[in-house]
């Protein structure tokens, strides 16, 4: 509630500027008795004239940030008319300083310099008027005016520079955020293209099985009906798997994947070789399997292999010295759960901001309706936990 009220208040510039004028208005009213008409002084103003002059100096300041040059011009002209008439300076003449600050802070450097020159000229005229043309008497007053005007001008110049710096930082942050989003999107597209190339072997394998079984069924149609029935069942099962892979492939890709080399892809049977490779690279790894291995499609097996590979690679790169890892592979009735944990640096590991391994893991798991959770472990180390359904009906 307080935050919304503050945002609403900051959005009302006129109200904010009017609130800043409140002390000046109060002080102007307090000094009114000493400035109104005195029969012995023909330059003193009446109460009505005092109020009109005060309004002419104060009211434009309500819109000083919306029209900084116009409001400064108005108060400067009113002050000049006041000098021509011979009226003594009022508290409300401080609006010239406010206008000078606003023009310097919100306009270009040239406009700020022009406003400073105008204010110095007015101070010079007022100093000579107060000294009745005596230069020696006017020097002290002019010095005070010059110090005040210079200080206000420097403050406005500083605020303008600071505001430009903050605006540049905001623009840079927005640009970096857009670049980061673009980089992540490019990583996702690259990962999806790679998934498409890898799944090509899976789909091609299923189609090849269908062709071979169909040829066998046609050959044994008359001589061995039992074998024909078995071949047709294999064709049906393999066809469903291939159709599911094709549907998933078309759902993942957003644009045509670039062509690449096709090669047989690893699966669950190659996890032992992967663990040996990582051990040879210097990371002690333990592979623990539990449960009864279900029938897992080639695409799912490849996904599990890649997740384990990426997690162990990250542990090898970022875990630090004397790091060990453990791979826990559990086969369930409806899903395969794989957990990769290490005792390395965890949250303290350096990150150059260019890695997209976790993005690739989540993209791969999402293809099959699975999910991946990754993050530092309490007390040190890093953990990656993935859940991959093994049947289409288990995805829900």
UniProtKB/TrEMBL annotation:
GO terms for cellular component: membrane. The chain crosses the membrane at residues 47-63, 70-91, 111-128, 140-159. It comes from Actinomadura harenae. This is histidine kinase. Its EC number is 2.7.13.3. PANTHER family: NITRATE/NITRITE SENSOR PROTEIN NARX-RELATED, NITRATE_NITRITE SENSOR PROTEIN NARQ. GO terms for molecular function: ATP binding; phosphorelay sensor kinase activity; protein dimerization activity. The keyword Thylakoid does not apply. Residues 159-193 form a coiled coil. InterPro entries: DUF7134 (IPR055558), HATPase_C_sf (IPR036890), HATPase_dom (IPR003594), His_kinase_dom (IPR005467), MFS_trans_sf (IPR036259), Sensor_HK_TwoCompSys (IPR050482), Sig_transdc_His_kin_sub3_dim/P (IPR011712). Keywords: ATP-binding, Coiled coil, Kinase, Membrane, Nucleotide-binding, Phosphoprotein, Transferase, Transmembrane, Transmembrane helix, Two-component regulatory system. The keyword Ribosomal protein does not apply. It holds the Pfam family HATPase_c. It comes from the Bacteria. The lineage of its organism: Bacteria, Bacillati, Actinomycetota, Actinomycetes, Streptosporangiales. It catalyses: ATP + protein L-histidine = ADP + protein N-phospho-L-histidine. CDD domains: HATPase_UhpB-NarQ-NarX-like. Residues 299-392 form the Histidine kinase domain.
